[in-house]
Amino acid sequence: MNKPVVVSEEALVEPVIVPDVTPDALAKAAAMGPAYIVLTGISFSHFLNDTMQSLIASIYPILKDSYALDFAQIGMITLAFQFTASLLQPLVGHFTDKKAQPFSLAIGMGFTFFGLLLLSAAHQYVVILVAAALVGLGSAVFHPESARIARLASGGRYGFAQSVFQLGGSFGTSMGPVLAALIVVPFGQPSIAWFSSIAFLAIVILWRIGRWYKPQIAAKKFTPSAPHPDAPSSRRVTTALAVLVALLFSKQLYVSSLSSYYIFYLIDKFGVSTQAAQLYLFIFLAANAVGAFFGGPLGDRFGRKYVIWFSILGALPFTLALPHVGLFAGAVLTVFIGLIISSATSSIIVFAQELMPHRFGMISGMFFGVAFGIGGLGAAVLGRVADHTGIAFVYQVCAFLPALGLLAVFLPKMPKTAH
């Protein structure tokens, strides 16, 4: 067994890299296979983290009725949460590229812990916004470094590891409406404080993962390696990153339209109860989780570009049909939409990481941040549109978003070694 690397205080002032970015370490990691215990732990932590985050959107009907909020104010709550998450994630990733912080995940989860406690006791709109921003801050710290740990534990199966990581987050997102229906709706806003125990459990798990991660850090200056002869040029890399951002925009804005307003759409169009609408939202989010898991391994096997192409453009027929069908048919369509459109998540992120492998934390943070930012800004804009035109019109417009999947044709062909 290899001895852990001892990192001195003097060495920590230098930029650090994770050993799996070097070719020799990559081959060794691939031979050893994935570290399943670590992947399970980081995925479960992602589950807990996103369960708490999705709880915010799930209690929107309660907050709307309790404080007489309009759709624009609901959108601002989403913006407050996702603005801190999106703005800070690239900065956190850039910082950890230079100086790894193995225990930052546990510390970041502390912000979520306090945000939930504050949200449970908030009786003013401004305090609700601050609580949502604190939960977003915890997310900003969590995602970039946890994605790095998932890659480090991948054993060379990067798409698979990213899918396992995303699976936890997607299932966590799907649990928010269920927990809101079972706990928050019957017991009211103060019951949100009970979910701080989930944050505490996540803190304990992430502290243990930090202890595993710390010896894996190699304290040495980064020396750029020679580029692969088939790697795309810097100009094509820039173009590809712009395309990936546009594809993520189409995917995330549509998902945000469902996660933030689908409950109101079902109540308004079909007259279902709040609890029933939350269960219909759970169906979509659960399908989203399953699709996110299978997208990564499919990308490993068939190529990420093809998975991205199919995932976003393939959802278009179903999104176009959704505004024109009944309650049951709509639930079936949301299952297909969730399965297909979410399968792009892992492939988009890993594709971007492979374009700039030596800026792993910054790229991970940027794409997670873009995802949160699009969701926040999109929710705010869609809320204003819904106030003026009605919630049904929002879904008629958003139905065309997956057509942006055509942009995948501009993605470069990556070297086979990248897969």
CATH class: Mainly Alpha
- Helix fraction, binned, reads over 70%
What is the averaged pLDDT score?
78
Class of secondary structure makeup:
mainly alpha
Cα separation of the termini? 28 Å
CATH superfamily (homologous) name: MFS general substrate transporter like domains
Radius of gyration: 21 Å
> Main β-sheet: number of strands, strand sense, barrel status?
none
Give the topology string: H per helix, E per strand: HHHHHHHHHHHHHHHH
Pfam family, one: MFS_1
InterPro entries: MFS (IPR011701), MFS_dom (IPR020846), MFS_trans_sf (IPR036259)
GO molecular function: transmembrane transporter activity
Organism: Bradyrhizobium canariense
Structure summarized in a few sentences:
With 419 residues, the chain is mainly α.
Provide a descriptive summary of the structure in words:
With 419 residues, this protein is an all-alpha fold. It has one domain: Growth Hormone, Chain: A, CATH 1.20.1250.20. It is built from 16 helices and no strands. It is globular. It starts with 22 loop residues before the first helix and ends in a 21-residue tail after the last helix.
Q: How are the SSEs ordered, and which strands pair?
A:
Elements: H1 23-32, H2 36-58, H3 60-67, H4 71-98, H5 104-121, H6 125-152, H7 158-187, H8 196-213, H9 234-270, H10 274-302, H11 304-313, H12 316-321, H13 327-341, H14 344-355, H15 360-389, H16 391-398
Helix pairs in contact: 2-6, 2-7, 2-8, 4-6, 4-15, 5-6, 5-8, 6-7, 6-15, 7-10, 7-14, 9-10, 9-14, 9-15, 9-16, 10-11, 10-13, 10-14, 11-14, 14-15, 15-16
